[in-house]
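CCA tRNA nucleotidyltransferase (Xylanimonas allomyrinae), 517 aa
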Amino acid sequence: MSTPEQDLLHRALRTLTTMAPAAIELGTLFRSAGHELALVGGPVRDAFLGRASNDLDFATSASPDQTQELLARWGDAHWDIGKEFGTIGARRFARPPRAGSGAGEGGAGEEGGTAGAADIVVEVTTYRSDQYDPASRKPVVAFGDTLDGDLSRRDFTVNAMAVRVPELTFVDPFDGLGDLARRVLRTPIAPERSFDDDPLRMLRAARFAAQLGFAVDPGTLAALESMVDRIEIVSAERVQAELSKLLLADRPRRGLEVLVETGLAGHVLPELPALKLEIDEHHRHKDVYQHSLTVLEQAIAQETGPDGPVPGPDLVLRLASLLHDIGKPATRRFEPGGGVSFHHHEIVGAKLATRRLRALKYEKQVVKDVARLIELHLRFHGYADASTGGGLSPAWTDSAVRRYVTDAGPLLERLHRLTRADSTTRNKRKAQRLADAYTDLERRIEALRAQEEIDAIRPDLDGTQIMSILGIGPSREVGAAYKHLLALRMEHGPLGTERAEAELRAWWEQQQGSADG
């Protein structure tokens, strides 16, 4: 009977064969120039997990200048944007095989390729060491001279395995294969030294826990807990990148739990552990922290394929789901009679999310969209609350439904999913009532969409028509007239040009009368 490590080796060999031609060719090129080259990091780890990749990472004894010269000969394009850190990148375009050519032949040539072919992207980094100056946010780069030394400076043993090319010799000085079989994250060197060299590795522990579903080694976890303050030296941009990768994993919950349990979240996303509100002895409200993690999972389950309305993984939906209740700690009130309220927590939460996401340097549109979803996530409950006794009453007027769609705008499909995911009650009857109510709301939206094109509601008259009818030029009054007609459109649906003009003239006459008075 084979061991888990042997099973992984066999799987890796099968996977590496799909990557071997390009890797072997590149290894031969470097060796002919007198340099070592090894496939390293994620591609090696993923090969053991049965995942092939066309994005290959290599480590080399060559200097960045030597690497750049060799990659210019190998690829169709190359770049030196990471040269300061010893990294040179290159791309070889997919292409059909040449008549009579063997595996591994290449060189620059025509673009294109056979069905299913893909470009090959490589990044080659000189053996190195990353260390932080205690007073600096940027790593200090020192180049090394051995593969084992380079591997010792990587974040975790499962990422500290290599395959020398062109000979395809497996190199594993820190038993990364054993840790991969045991599904454990452990640092190659003492974790205190590793995290001190690069504090971002603490966040990577949480990220890989999410992406791989691995546990963090107890010694590594203890060091992380004792050193969380060190994360403050890392730039917001690097923190944001790791947090986004964590959230975009198939199962981000475990990674988020690592952040909270170690205290790391208190430094990078303090609103998350703040959701662990003390539950009073009468259990008058649910655990908001656990609820938020469940909402995130349920929202992920509603993401769609690439051709659907919310293709997964969707960062905006996931951030909004995780943060939708962060306004609750600041708004919690114990009411007479034993109730608990969180009045306007959606408004407070939107402001808190905006502040946090800006601090993490997220793009403006991401910040705006997440905050808007949080602000709107309770709007539906005004519709659901009108449901009585198992039957649905006309909860909202058509005007209210139009406003719901207009206020959500392009976020409507995400809002649908966030609202449905926000139901975590164990009361099956209540859960079914909420689901039925939202299904009814979606049905009404579709009916109005078919009648009125409500996704792009506009007044029946545009600005040019308003100015022509009223005989005025561009002014504040035109904007006021536009808003008036839009409100009528929301309330009554399409008016038609004739009625809209009559309403406009009546409004204008009233405005003129008020001015004269």
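The mean pLDDT is 85. Residues 463-516 form one domain. ok done for today
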